[in-house]
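Convert to structure. Protein one:
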Amino acid sequence: MKLDLSSIVASLGGDLHGDGSIVVTGLAPLEAATGSDLSFLSNPRYQSQLMASRAACVIVGPAMESTAVARGPCIVTDQPYLYFARLTQLWQRGRDADKVGGVHPSAVVDAQAVVHPTASIGALCVVERGAHIGAHTVLKSRVTLGEDCVLGERCIVHSGVVIGADGFGFAPNGDAWEKIAQLGAVRIGNDVEIGANTCIDRGALQDTVIEDGVKLDNLIQIGHNVRVGRNTAMAGCVGVAGSATIGAHCTIGGGAIVLGHLTVGQDVNISAGTLVSKSILKPGHYTGIFPIDDNASWERNAASLKQLHSLRDRIKTLEKEIKK
């Protein structure tokens, strides 16, 4: 893959300083870039790396323009990290230009499934009866799309994803369990990306819903009847239990857990490893992580925490006696 700087700026914008005919053959971080690579700087703290970089060209923000121009060719843009993200997409499109889409010969697509002609179905995928796949959506290898489940347009579904397995629903029957048939499906909007080995369960009666623009990392579990609002992003190993509702524009850090039937409102940011045990309706950043410590200290602190309620009552009693 090769692109000259003028072509990049023509496609993505930005102000080019230097020779537009310079050809770059790769994208690389500042410290590893060679004389044929394009790199970027989004944080001024790494200015020393900028000056030492051998990159053919560097993408920078306006605050770093004079420094970057003194070093050599550069592209100046208001949001260098976003510019670099779009550059990687441009690079990927060029690299994949000769790839053929369609359905891989080893994939199994039910005759009653609907697959848009521009969609790409990878090796060993299974698309079951009544499923719908929208335009320009890509299923990597070994993806399973269950009965009647819907994938919107321009989605990317990575290897091993299972969409539409039964939700975890059982009714107690004495000392046994009676299965609740999962009669809903999964509806996924446009521009959604789902990481490898993530599972999204079908609803019990109504559908599980993933709205437009949602980004899910690897190894995420989405329970039945969950609704995830548009442009929400979840990092790896998040677990969302059944019937929870996640609002739009949320971020959920890796390993966090949202309990069932809770509501997380719009614009909520949840730290990694947090257990969400009650609904969060106010936008903001929420954290619920007990600090790591050596085991003996942790056990002592945990034992103290168990006494907080009684200590609070004792303090209230003492305060009342002092006021008398």
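Protein two, convert as well:
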Amino acid sequence: MKLDVIQLTKDIVSISSVSHQSNATVSDLLEETLKKCEFEVERLQFIDQSGESKVSLVAKKGEGKGGFGLFSHSDTVPGDEWAWDAFSPAIEDDRLIGRGSCDMKGPLAATIVAGASVNSSQLGKPLFIVITADEEISGMGARQVAEESVLFNSFRPAHGVIAEPTQLTPVYAHKGGARIVVTAYGRSAHTSTDQGISANFLIAPFLAEMVEVAELCKTDKSFMNHEFDPPTNGFNMILDDGGCKPNVTAAKTVCTLGFRPMPDDRSQDVIAMVTEKAEKYNFEVTSSQGQPFYISPETEIVQTGLKATGISKPSTVPFGTDAFSFQDSLQLVVLGPGNIEQAHTVGEYIEISQLFEAVKVYQQMIEILCM
């Protein structure tokens, strides 16, 4: 089946699949399209915390084990519809405009069009297309595929591409995401009584210590990785006292600290340091960490990406992808059309020339790894 990458991108951009909503409708279209293109399709579902149905798709064409996979996600960040017509895709000059056109429905369309261009009889090894849910908020779709997919785990591909926008530069490493939540509890009272205990005052000495941790992360090279630009982890802090009024003492203050772990950057030391300081004040503290992604630039998949794109040297990026959920299963490179600076913006767009070039790149990688 011959597909048009521009039309397919427009079709899926026009279906809102913002992460806090169900992505079932766009998944229905994608499943139908994949089946028409000779793919066997497995549908995985879960219900998120808000009761919304979420769908991930695993598609396979060709026989045997090993082969090559193209990985994308079908959810997007909110459309910001108040500012533009986010889900009515438009073409202006060399740009296809619409929410998700860059991150990452355009790249997703390019993977399907490349896969559709190959007949199953041409494949010596199987070709996979994996489309996950909730990449933008939880990564649950990728984890479900990695843990539960029968197609993926029975015929697991040996190599894969995460098709996030990299301007078609092969990427061998990206940062992860860590979060530490520290909660102080006081006692609410009207300030005229002077009987309250402000959680904001209680947490203030801890916040002063976080200023020192932030400075350490910006100046101590052992907390950095100079393969990245910037080489620092972006240590950040936000506060929430529940919108407490000036004449009331805050009963609860939540300090959320976030940073972007990198390979070999002492991320665990940062978490341990913050946790120790919070516990010293008897504050409640929890932490979670999304791992960074790294693969040697010398691996076959990175070198295949360089050959297909004609680029001489791979790169790194500061944003995260689904790669960390799949990196223990196969060799991966992050490689897709579009500029990440356009992602999540009002007026988000992808260059049409990049979409056409991405189809060619993926076709060449399929030829190298599956034929």
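The chain has two domains: 5-174+293-370, 177-290. Residues 177-290 form a domain with the Alpha-Beta Plaits fold (CATH 3.30.70.360).
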